[in-house]
Amino acid sequence: MKVLIAYDGSNDSDAALDDLVRAGLPPAGEALVVSVADVWLPPPNGSRSPDDGPDQILDPAAEQWLQQQWDRGRAKVAEAESLAGHARKRVQKALPAWNVRSEATYGSPAWEIIAKADEMDADLIVVGSQGRSAIGRFVLGSISQKVLTEARCSVRIGRGKIEVDETPVRSLVGFDGSNGSIAALNAAASRCWPPGSEVRVISAAEEILPSAIGRFIPPVTSAAAAINAAERNWLGNQAKQALAAIGPTTVPFSFETISGHPKEVLIAEASRWNADCIFLGANKFGSRIERFLLGSTSAAVAARATASVEVVRSKSE
Fold this sequence. Notes:
By secondary structure, the protein is of the alpha/beta class. The protein has helices spanning about 10-20, 60-95, 110-120, 145-150, 180-190, 220-245, 260-275, 295-305; strands at about 1-5, 30-35, 100-105, 125-130, 155-160, 170-175, 200-205, 255-260, 275-280, 310.
């Protein structure tokens, strides 16, 4: 398994590092820690070409300003190198049998993270829910959301819990019968969970309700109830087939259907159950009734959940 870990020194990126030990990662793999300096950087020598003609010569004030920007850029890259090296040591401690490297670069953080993930053919990108910027911090919707929506591989928004001892991990899987949700289910099933861990597969069924007038018309009420029952039965059958295809697992999997909007159901259940992570599919196109579309349910859950959220994307998509 190949994992890229984005790190900027913020509390949230530290939390994402803490979350690694509860992500069910395999005993061995390859990890690259990347820190990005959000600056424009000049040529390495920091000077104009000797072939520049008179028209390219800057006035002293402009020359001084440009030199200041170059110096600032170099300082930011040096800071990124230090951060990446610090994070690499923490990751190596958390994943002792992994091959862990670190690298610093500069440019647009989201695009650099995505480019590095493509370069190493990563299976998973790990980012914090928020980070730092010139005005204080990112929110999910800028750097993290850009990575979440644009990456070619799975993305985990890590929200770590500080645990003194290894404890069982509780995971939720959002399931709607789509290929994306089946991929999320397979991802959760393939992880190496500690003894006592559990995985709950949840389908959210948005029930059809008769209008105010329709409630007093028995045929309308009966039709709505029949449609809702058929929807729940369909979801249950799809989940049973998906679980059967997985076969025996090292941890127990359970399934239930809960009435309500998917993002509200998943966030509420994760909070109530004190879940460590929510696995979701990244469907590029609408599923049965356009549930779990990335940018709607997946992005909303990733932004609002108190647990880590892993949006699973097949690299073949």
